[in-house]
Amino acid sequence: MATTYIHFTEEQKDQARHTDLRSFLLGQGEKVERSGSEYKWNHGGEKITIRGNLWFNQYEPDSGGGDAIAFAREFYGLDFPEAVKFLLEQQGVVILPQKDVPAKEKKPFALPAKNGDMRRVYAYLLKARFLDREVVNAFVRAGLLYEDAEYHNAVFVGVDENGIARHAHKRGTYLDSGFKGNVDSSNPDYSFHYIGKSNRLYVFEAPIDMLSYISLHKENWQEHSYVALCSTATYGAIHILKTNPQIDTIITCLDHDSAGIEGNYRLKEEILRLGAYTVSAEQPRFKDWNEGLKSEHGIKPLPGTEHPGLVRMKTLCQELAIVFTGDRCPKYPLDELKEQYQKLRQLSMKRPRDIIMQSSEMAGIAFLLGQKQFASLEKSYTVQQYEKILFRLYAPHHDKIGYKARIAEIGERLEEIGQAFQKNEILSESAQMEQIKNTLSLAVDCLRLETYVEREQMEMQRRESSCQTESSPMAMQQ
């Protein structure tokens, strides 16, 4: 029997799943209140705890909670595809209609049948991918890598704590094959990994990236732990941390492109919610770690690409620090910020220049207020130091929300700052530094709004240019 089916890529489902619920609710006109490091949302008298893309109903501790998709299903009455579509559309992602297709039944997990030898896999991994033979042999001997019988794919196996296979990732071995994918019903908690005895965990997007990095850093590699997420989802890494308490240092090693860079930020944010971990990013010189191996063997590598949001934000933070460092803060900065915010709320996307000017004005006032707060702690910084402080507060994976949600987010942050000033409490230096971080985050939120409007304008111009080209006499003749 046919049913309406919407196809989503794994990246789209992951993007929906990691929707920031605070920003989402603000965009829906809901009231969200801070409670320590979390947020509370009042739903019919019940307090729902919000942590990034996760939620928890304290009135139903056994069943009330989950990620953003579960949130949309619980509180908006949607099924899974409707929830994914709804969350993506709130982020500006256009979902095209799909034809009806037969519904599929979920298959139980099973490893593909093994081939009698591994000649094709070895040829691919050693000659085309330049992986180190000893490294490949180690994973083959452990039963974590083999060649399947039907298609001769490389199969990367993920096992549970008892050594039972729970996940498998397949990679085509023909030179012109781009095939890759997880075996049906693979458990993402157990994606391809290796557990060592040290306190370090290295995190990668794909198994070949992981083996490439080990090939490039062979010395004592068995001491450490490694995991390939087999996507940019975070389940595999999070599960390893929960089941291996000796690990307290995580190095995220995702691809040198926009998706990988956002994945590094998202993974760090999720890990820090779990506890006091040390998280840093190690970026490949080229697009990924295997391109580095290719470069060492005389093959021209694919270059890495920078995240456009990071590039633009770095410039805006630099300009803000240059213009306002050392300037005098207004006598009543909070009153000015509130006045400017009311003006900002009245603007629409039909007036992009006014929005940019208004958000830039607010960013400057918030920055000056932050400087004033630093001065009260007898701390002063150079232009370059302020630029770094501001830039570190920007996380590009939070860019995927709409205009209304951004405006609401700025208002919520401003209200929070105002409430903190009204308390007039004697705070410890660490608490005061947290307040300063919040003030400067308001400046970054305003700069983020600038970049959003700029991108929307560029996209509108691109579409208009495309329409003009398609309707030109020459195009019509063709």
Describe the protein in words.
The structure is a single chain. The protein is of the alpha+beta class and 478 residues long. The protein has three domains: 2-102, Zinc finger, CHC2-typedomain (DNA Primase, Chain A), CATH 3.90.580.10; 119-296, Dna Topoisomerase Vi A Subunit, Chain: A, domain 2; 308-463, no CATH class. It has helices at 10-17, 21-27, 68-76, 80-90, 119-128, 133-141, 207-216, 235-243, 258-274, 289-296, 308-324, 333-345, 352-376, 383-392, 403-423, 429-470, 473-477, and strands at 2-3, 32-35, 38-43, 46-51, 54-57, 65-66, 101-102, 145-147, 154-159, 165-171, 180-182, 193-194, 200-204, 225-228, 249-252, 278-281. It has a five-stranded antiparallel β-sheet with strand order 2-3-4-5-6, with helices on one face. Strand 4 and strand 5 form a beta hairpin. Helix 2 (21-27) crosses helix 15 (403-423) and helix 11 packs across helix 13. Pfam families: DUF3991, Toprim_2. This is DUF3991 domain-containing protein.
